Amino acid sequence: MCTTCGCGPVSGHHHDHEHTHEHEHTHGDLSHSHPHPHSHDHDHAEQHHHHDHLHDDGQPHQHSHDEAHRSKRISIEEDILAKNNRLASFNRALFREKGILVLNLVSSPGSGKTTLLERTLRDLSGRYRCAVIEGDQQTDNDARRIAATGVPVKQINTGAGCHLDAHMVMHATEAFDLDQLDILFIENVGNLVCPAAFDLGEAHKVVVLSVTEGEDKPLKYPQMFHNSDLMLLNKVDLLPHLSFDVAQCKEYAGRVSHDLAILELSATSGQGLDAWYGWLQQELGR
Questions:
Q1: DSSP label at residue 240
Q2: Which residue has the higher pLDDT, 26 or 93?
Q3: How far apart are CA 274 and CA 286, in angstroms?
Q4: Spatial contact of 103 and 206, defined as CB atoms under 8 Å apart
Q5: What span, in angstroms and rounded, lies between the C-alpha atoms of 88 and 164?
Q6: Positive or negative CA dihedral for 83, 85, 88, 94?
Q7: Strand pairing of 101-107 and 204-210?
Q8: 186: how many CB neighbours lie within 10 A of its CB?
Q9: Are 249 and 221 in contact (CB under 8 A)?
Q10: In b/e form, how buried is each residue of 44-71, taking b as 16+ CB within 10 angstroms?
């Protein structure tokens, strides 16, 4: 179960009560964690309790505890997102004040986000001042890869959490001199579900989809592609060895979002990277 947004199995043994506890997440090499309270609810799927009472017409009316519990879950989820959005607004105002282009890179695991970042940071070295926030459940493997490019990086380990949130990003930015940055890349936890709902204060969500994943991903995970402004179709150098249908993938993405820009590229071969860098330059100019 995600300890931040409360998502979990849709079936199975579930108990329903609300509680608040401290959840810790660790930022890179910091020796301290930032506990923050948040609520979860659980529900006993097998236990159904009903209360009967009479309407004015004398007819019995049933209330199910399940209905009340569903309502409680929705209320808690809305509260969590509202708190996150307030912090995201704070982050966004700060980034705008500092003139930083902030991008939230989202994808499923293995799409090539880190490889794309490594190549991008090396190619743009000397042109733009960049920093990276790395989000993973465990390890600092990707952060060490980014650090090897010479770019400042901050690791966030979310533990059981399946995404970054605005609170984590707010604290992670304390590791950087924001006055000395042009672009901040946030590499989110590999997950096409929960990161779609959590605003971090970024200017754009950029969804990375590799041609090894299947062209129907936009239809399977529509919220992520709908909430993104740019889709990077990565690993196109592998197309001769795959049955991936690029045109069909773009058509599916267009169904989900008519405004979604799409670039085809390969972080390994370098194909299409000039268009990606041109997009970055254009957004910086805004």
A1: G
A2: 93
A3: 19
A4: yes
A5: 11
A6: negative
A7: parallel
A8: 27
A9: no
A10: ebeeeeeeeeeeeeeeeeeeeebeebee
pLDDT tens for residues 221-265? 999 999 999 999 999 999 999 999 999 999 999 999 999 999 999
Pull the structure tokens for residue 199.
């605003």
pLDDT of 111 over the 70 cut? yes
CA angle 128, 133, 134 (to 5 degrees): 125
Q: Report residue 279 as tokens.
A: 């997009």
pTM of this structure: 0.77
Tokens encoding 45: 């799927």
Radius of gyration of the chain measured on its C-alpha atoms: 22
Number of Cβ within a 10 Å radius of residue 14 = 17
Quick: pLDDT tens for 27-41.
444 333 333 433 434
Which helix (DSSP H) or strand (DSSP E) does residue 242 occupy? none
In which band, very low, low, confident or very high, does the pLDDT at 161 lie, cut at 50, 70 and 90? confident
> In angstroms, how far is CA 154 from the centroid of its own chain?
16
Residue 174 token pair: 């304390």
pLDDT band per the 50, 70, 90 thresholds, residue 286: confident
Q: Which residue has the tokens 């592609």?
A: 225
* Distance from C-alpha of 169 to C-alpha of 190, rounded to nearest angstrom: 16
Which residues 6+ apart lie within 8 Å of 281 measured at CB?
none
The first and second tokens of residue 189, run together, are 């936890």
